[in-house]
Amino acid sequence: MALLYKAVRADLRLHTIVVLLHRIGARISELLALNLADVDLLHRRFQVVGKGNKQRWCFYSQHDALFTAQQQFTERVSRLSYRTVHQHWKAAIKDIRQLIAARIHDLRHTFATERVGLIALEELRALMGHEKIQTTLRYQKVISGQAEAAAQRALETLLHLSLCH
Q: Which superfamily does 2-164 belong to?
């Protein structure tokens, strides 16, 4: 992630998009479809319409960007397109070997993976906008060190309980 943030630092708009995608778990299409009226500045959240036309809240910290672009010849201002973001994304990461295969959507996966174990799976399911918990469970990968630590904690708890009785 540090390499990615460094790669997009010079492009303020792309940097903001990357930060938001990484920190809120929205789909790029959901972010680009935002209207200013969707943003609740007081509570630092905005509502997106996800798959199946389902609405959900996304929460942010200190960003209140509106993603627009001015057309080169007509000077008309319109919603920023996925194509434009993708072009900026590719330009930003093209010289970084470790990021060549990175996709914008990978930020959504990173959001979920970083939060597994920190928040309840049902809460993560709601934040991700998943209809089925099975979709969210794909992000629950327990590494052997975590499993060993959990087993040790369970044994210590059981031992403590048996000594208390």
A: Intergrase catalytic core (1.10.443.10)
